[in-house]
Amino acid sequence: MIRLLVQKITFAGCALSIAVLLLMGCAGKNAQSNEHAGSSANIPLLPHTIEHDGNQRQYLLRLPSGELPAKPIPLVLVLHGGGGRPDNFDYLMTNHTLSKADDSRSMMLVFPTGINKQWNDGRSEIFKGKPSYDDVGFIDAVISDVVSQYPIDESRIYATGISNGGHMSFRLGMELATTIAAIAPVTAQVSKSISKQIPAKTLGVMLVNGTEDPLVPYDGGLIKLSKIGRSRGEVLSSEQSAVLFSQHNGCNESAATITLPDSNRSDGTLVRVHSYDNCNDQVTVKLVEVVGGGHTWPGGRQYLGKRRIGRVSKDINASELILDFFLSQTR
Question: What is the DSSP pairing of strand 108-112 with strand 152-162?
């Protein structure tokens, strides 16, 4: 049974714990209401509930500019990090750059909710001693639910997310490639646990990763919340992750690299874009290397101190970059 809930929701502040460091969800005492989290224009996020696998699961939906589109538009799945929440993602992670970019591009943003603020992205280390959930099936059901109620261009369905949400984007790309046209994980790489999977189709991929991410190592290795903490899985390097998809897509063996203008010299970062072109089916694979960047959303908010998560690059607006990349990809 599927039921639609349209109501305004609010949430209280939450205490910061070490677990949140991997994936960011606590807005603290200054947490905003759901209405303000939608965009700077106060467009509300519409709550929806579906039943999947015996559980009541939720997602939030944002209409571009707050209006029901007159014709089919792209759908973008936005996945929160571990310990995070969908209702404050736009405010806490992107500093409202995502909703602003969406309003000028007319795309449907959908924010699913992970059970216990986590996604089953394929890394078994996350759920040691705890039950895991069919999040691939849940998100597939979310897509079906949205498509059944709103005008969606089904050739333009995309997924992005940060950290645990970025890793989940990779899993969706592997397992839902016949549905999803492109993914854009942020602060995430392909985990060893899913690296042998083969997507059923070609897939557009753009990674956005910081070279000084203290949690997810840019050059690959073990993910840890602290130097002495337990492993939360092993990931390929950023370059290996990009090459994995470029080879699957039949792209050029070598990437073409450009260095973007250092538009903000005080942020301590520089951005290089590595593009694997001439792929099959006109898809593209890109690695956005944020030199000096941390476990953050470029152009977004410094949601925790630099010593804990590293720097936020102000040289690029990742929200605009991601949505423009999506618009260039179709299934």
Answer: unpaired
Residue 135 — φ and ψ, nearest 5°? -75, -25
Residue with tokens 């603020």: 117
* Nearest Cα to Cα of residue 175 among 198, 191, 206, 209: 198
In whole angstroms, give the CA distance from residue 73 to residue 154: 8
**Calpha distance 160→206 (Å, rounded):** 9
Residues 6+ apart with CB under 8 A from 61: 45, 46, 48, 108, 109, 110, 111, 146, 150
In single-letter form, the type of residue at position 149 comes to Q
The pLDDT mean for the chain works out to 88
Domain boundaries along the sequence of the chain: 2-327
Q: What is the DSSP letter of 323?
A: H
Closest to 309 measured CA to CA, from 299, 295, 298, 297: 295
* Cα atoms in the Cβ-side hemisphere of radius 13 Å centred on 308: 14
**Residue recorded with tokens 């677990």:** 19
DSSP string of 157-196, one letter each residue: EEEEEETHHHHHHHHHHHH-TTT--EEEEES---BGGGTT
C-alpha–C-alpha distance, residues 198 and 206, integer Å: 17
pLDDT digits (tens, 9 = 90+) for 85-105: 999 999 899 999 999 999 999
Residue 61 tokens read as 């939906």
Class in CATH terms, 2-327? alpha beta
Q: How far is CA 272 from CA 37, 284, 317, in A?
A: 30, 16, 14
What CA–CA distance (Å, rounded) separates 160 from 280?
A: 22
What would the mean pLDDT of 159-170 be, rounded to a whole number? 98
Of 147, 50, 47, nearest in space to 87 by CA:
47
For the beta carbon of residue 120, count every other beta carbon within 10 angstroms. 22
**The most confident of 8-12, 63-67, 184-188, by mean pLDDT:** 184-188
Three-class DSSP category at 97: helix
